[in-house]
Amino acid sequence: MKPGAKQALLDQVIEHIEQLDLRSHVIVGTECTVVAALGEKRDGAKQALETLEGVEKVVPILAPYKMASTEVKKEPTCVTVLGLSVGAGRLGIIAGPCSVESRDQILEIAHVVKDAGAAGLRGGAFKPRTSPYSFQGMKEKGLELLAEARKATGLAVVTEVMAKEHVELVAAYADVLQVGARNMQNYPLLEAVGESGLPVLLKRGPSATMDEFLLAAEHILKTGNSNVMLCERGIRTFEDHTRFTLPLATVPYLHQKTHLPVVVDPSHGTGKASLVAPMARAAVAAGADGLIVEIHPNPDKALSDGYQALTPAAFRQMMAECRKVAAAVGLEM
Ligand code: PEP
Ligand code: MN
Fold it and tell me: How far apart are the CA of 251 and the centre of ligand 1, in A?
């Protein structure tokens, strides 16, 4: 829209878009208001819209994803929930165990997270395990314990939802819904987490391309939920010195293509506790908007992913190091 175009003109444009059988989505920016027209390409639509009063120009969005694209919204998106802010210059840290295992474990670790200056508490209650014989999570009891840990600390709870049928239950306890790597292309789940209205942490599938990743985010955005964080958690390559390969070029690449914040998971990305802090520092140096890190009071005894968990002391050390890197690259941590 032209700068200063009145609401009545905006409404006219929206009405016209809808008459063309397209969906409209209004993005109010600092410099101008953009109306995205979403749907299949329509002959003559560009000309029809271009002649409406108040319209500055009509630009076809070239990227296959639309609402996620910087072509539609240039200003970076910041996702904020409780004390956790991720994006637009704010570096949000989420830490906690791979799985919620007991009341003592999650409360103890929540205080470690809080005292170290992080704002998000992670912990899986519904766990996607490669083997059906591994610990599958505490389910609803785990969610109750996460909510208790939030009450005690004020941390924002980030936890995975594995199935569309569980969204209502998990959303009743969580502050951020995590969609796991294995579910990145589970479209009914993406739609359901979008409709929950809660912020979503979408993890990259280990074999997904950037376009597939951004189109998965687009499924969530299309529901009208704009609080989506993208999470690079490592991809499958021929390398076997690490559990996955953590490609950090993802961070600046995504910053060019999308306004959505980018979180890095150096825990699953490496699978080795000794590599987590160096890759966390590197992620911050690359401009990551957030980190999600696995920590455990006693990694040797963890019921899942203990080999990649930091001890509380190692986590505090990592936080101190990341704070220096954040300051050096102009991020507020
Ligand atoms: C996790 O965060 O514990 C997890 C299972 O991650 P991912 O989906 O990236 O494997
Ligand atoms: Mn894990």
Answer: 18
Ligand 1 atom having least distance to the Cα of 180:
8
Nearest residue CA, atom 6 of ligand 1?
180
In order, the DSSP letters of 14-74 are: HHHHHHTT-EEEEEE-SS-EEEEEESS--TTHHHHHHTSTT--------SS-STTBTTT--
Give the pTM. 0.94
State in Å, rounded, how far the first CA of the chain is from the last one: 36
Q: What values do phi and psi take at 179, rounded to 5?
A: -100, 120
Q: For a ligand 1 pocket test, name from 127, 200, 268 the mutation site with the most ligand atoms within 8 angstroms of its C-beta.
A: 268
φ/ψ (deg, to 5) at 290: -165, 160
Atom number in ligand 1 closest to CA 98: 3
What's the 1 CA to ligand 2 centre distance in angstroms?
Answer: 45
98 lines ligand 1 (CB under 6 A): yes
Q: DSSP labels for 80-126?
A: EETTEEEBTTB-EEEEE-SB---HHHHHHHHHHHHHTT--EEE-BSS
Tell me the CA distances in angstroms from 234 to 53, 147, 156, 302, one per residue in order: 48, 29, 24, 22
Residue nearest (by alpha carbon) to ligand 1 atom 4: 180
The string of pLDDT tens digits covering residues 52-101 is 999 999 998 888 899 999 998 999 999 999 999 999 999 999 999 999 99
In this predicted model, what pLDDT tens digit does every residue of 173-232 receive, in sequence order? 999 999 999 999 999 999 999 999 999 999 999 999 999 999 999 999 999 999 999 999
Which residue has a Cα nearest atom 3 of ligand 1? 98
Q: Residue 44's CB: how many other CB atoms inside 10 A?
A: 8
Nearest alpha-carbon partner for 228 in 78, 41, 35 = 78
- Of 192, 208, 210, which is closest to residue 200 (Cα–Cα)? 192
